[in-house]
Design brief:
239 residues; alpha+beta; 6 helices; 30% helix; globular
Length: 239
């Protein structure tokens, strides 16, 4: 049973519970892109992303990765550990796509020599700008030790997710994670892992548009958005 609404973001609502260290995360059908300049809805997205994220969190936990996930309690709700989210979006890229192509002139779909970890300042008013380690230190967003931990954690998650999605016959192009600090000062993977936060391409399809199985279908008005999410969920739950 949910308590008081603590926070509402673009994709989820957080509620208090009887335990101050446990929150209820409710996934929404709302869809946003380009820093919420584009808004819409995807049928049953909340339930699909909750199911996908729950399954992947459990997979990562089994690989020794610490997450905020406790248990899924309804089709679109999960209990999570209460954490303080670091104001840094951590992006890991395996293949060039999206903003990095515009910034660096890379060709869409170009494999990177090794995974690239980037930090973005989690600030909607500023448009979540790309930041360096020096910016993190200047803004006091995280300690130098946490920065090192964030990079290693991101690379470890990437390795596990690549293995997992490969079994789903999906290519993990890139993904975004948010990291929280719990009451014991541990860094925990928070937020979600889903087609909202990952670029996923169908390995069996060569067409650059048809192979897209993530929120880029919404961003680029490609259609069949719910169907793509449903297919990802079916493959994830079967893996």
């Amino acid at each position: 049973m949910s308590g008081t609404k603590l926070y509402e973001g673009k994709a989820k609502i957080l509620f208090t519970t009887d335990d101050p260290n446990i929150l209820l995360s409710r996934y929404k059908d709302d869809a946003t892109a380009f820093n919420a300049l584009k808004k819409g809805s995807i049928a049953n997205k909340g339930e699909m992303n909750c199911a996908i994220a729950s399954h992947i969190f459990q997979y990562l936990e089994a690989q020794g990765m610490a997450t905020h996930f406790i248990k899924q309690v309804s089709p679109n709700e999960m209990q999570v550990v209460a954490v303080k989210i670091l104001p840094i979006e951590v992006v890991v890229r395996n293949i060039a796509a999206g903003s990095i192509c515009k910034r660096l002139g890379l060709e869409q779909g170009q494999p990177l020599k090794k995974p690239l970890v980037e930090f973005f300042y989690k600030n909607d008013d500023l448009g979540d700008p790309l930041i360096t380690d020096a910016h993190v230190a200047m803004l006091d967003l995280a300690t130098p030790e946490q920065v090192d931990q964030l990079k290693q954690l991101a690379l470890d998650i990437n390795q596990h997710l690549q293995t997992f999605f490969d079994r789903c016959n999906l290519l993990l192009v890139d993904f975004k994670v948010e990291i929280g600090v719990d009451v014991n000062e541990r860094l925990l993977l928070a937020d979600e892992i889903s087609p909202d936060t990952c670029r996923l391409w169908d390995k069996a399809i060569s067409d650059p548009t048809a192979r897209i199985m993530d929120k880029d279908r919404f961003r680029q008005d490609l259609g069949n958005i719910a169907e793509a999410y449903q297919e990802v969920m079916n493959r994830v739950l079967a893996t």
